[in-house]
Automatic annotation (TrEMBL):
InterPro entries: Glyco_trans_2-like, Glycosyltransferase_2, Nucleotide-diphossugar_trans. It is found in: Membrane. Residues 6-169 form the Glycosyltransferase 2-like domain. SUPFAM superfamilies: Nucleotide-diphospho-sugar transferases. The lineage of its organism: Bacteria, Pseudomonadati, Pseudomonadota, Alphaproteobacteria, Rhodospirillales. It comes from the Bacteria. Pfam families: Glycos_transf_2 (PF00535). It is a multi-pass membrane protein. This is Glycosyltransferase 2-like domain-containing protein. The keyword Oxidoreductase does not apply. The keyword Translocase does not apply.
């Protein structure tokens, strides 16, 4: 068991799921003949998750904890876990057990066959509202259509990365990281494992359809890997000119022959205003991302660690 697999769990308030996640994950990795470390990154939980994990760590020092100073988000917690992971490969997944840890042994096999990144692709999603599933599928398709790289559809936050892939990912400094895109962007040989996503093992989802996180994730995915909005602004401007010039000419001709030309002028003014507002809104999304990157704040701040030598340095 010379191969070490690090598993990073990003979570908040999952005290009911942690014991089962530990047991199933350990069994899956040991079945693959590997050693393990399980790194639980606590996004400032308010339940007894910390107490549960302290008990597990006391019994098995390979179970480790990184606690954030406040809520930072799923991707930031994953990166914080990767920053302290020592494994030859790193797996990251949610703690709600919708993504089955038993797949880890198959992911390790694909990695041993030469893949630096192993995606898991959901064939079905059980226990989720049909409206949320439909919106999720459309968001994936929109991001894939607009992206400048190939982004796998229905491949969520359950992946295995080789050590060199992890190192490359941690070297990327951008804020509001869209991990599903960045993992594909870094390249290297990539493989896929298909599975049926289960319903949450216990508790309620932390990301209902009308919560902030799903919409933020979708927007980040779209603007992180697509210049389509910028091209759309240009297309809107050219279309406005193509429509506006004939309308202006028609208005001028109307004035020459005694008409008012008011309709043409009004339509042109309305079109110009709408085009300007759309352009400002879309460009604003990119300006926000530039602002966040330029100001240089760390992506996360660690409050404490358990079982980890030294506190991980925040990644800018």
């Amino acid at each position: 068991m010379d191969t070490l697999i690090s598993v990073v769990f990003s979570f908040r308030n999952e005290e009911s799921n942690i014991p089962v996640a530990v047991t199933r994950t350990r069994d899956a990795i040991q079945a693959a003949g590997c050693d393990y470390e399980l790194i639980f990154v606590d996004d400032d939980s308010s339940d007894s998750s910390a107490t549960v994990l302290a008990g597990f760590h006391a019994a098995d020092p390979r179970i480790k904890v990184v606690t954030m100073s406040r809520r930072f988000g799923v991707s930031e917690c994953v990166l914080a876990g990767m920053a302290v992971a020592r494994g030859d490969a790193v797996v990251y997944l949610d703690t709600d057990l919708q993504d089955p840890p038993e797949l880890i042994s198959e992911m390790i096999a694909r990695w041993r066959d030469g893949a630096d990144i192993v995606h898991t692709v959901r064939s079905h999603r059980l226990g989720e509202h049909p409206a949320k599933m439909w919106l999720t599928r459309q968001a994936y398709r929109l991001i894939q259509w607009a992206s400048t790289i190939n982004l796998p559809i229905n491949a969520g936050d359950f992946k295995l990365l080789s050590r060199r892939a992890v190192d490359q990912l941690l070297a990327l400094p951008e804020s509001d990281p869209y991990l599903r895109g960045l993992v594909s962007w870094i390249g290297f040989p990539q493989a896929f494992v298909t599975y049926e996503r289960q319903a949450r093992h216990a508790g309620e989802t932390h990301f209902p359809i009308f919560s902030r996180n799903p919409w933020k994730t979708a927007v980040n995915g779209f603007i992180s890997f697509s210049f389509t909005p910028l091209y759309a602004i240009l297309a809107t401007g050219l279309t406005g000119l193509a429509i506006g010039v004939p309308l202006l000419l028609a208005g001028l001709m109307g004035l020459v022959f005694g008409g008012s030309g008011g309709l043409a002028v009004g339509a042109l003014a309305l079109l110009a205003w709408a085009s300007l507002m759309a352009a400002i809104g879309l460009v604003g999304l990119y300006i926000v991302r530039i602002y966040k990157d330029v100001r240089g704040r760390p992506r996360y701040v660690v409050r404490s660690t358990l079982g980890i030598d030294g506190q991980p340095a925040p990644k800018g």
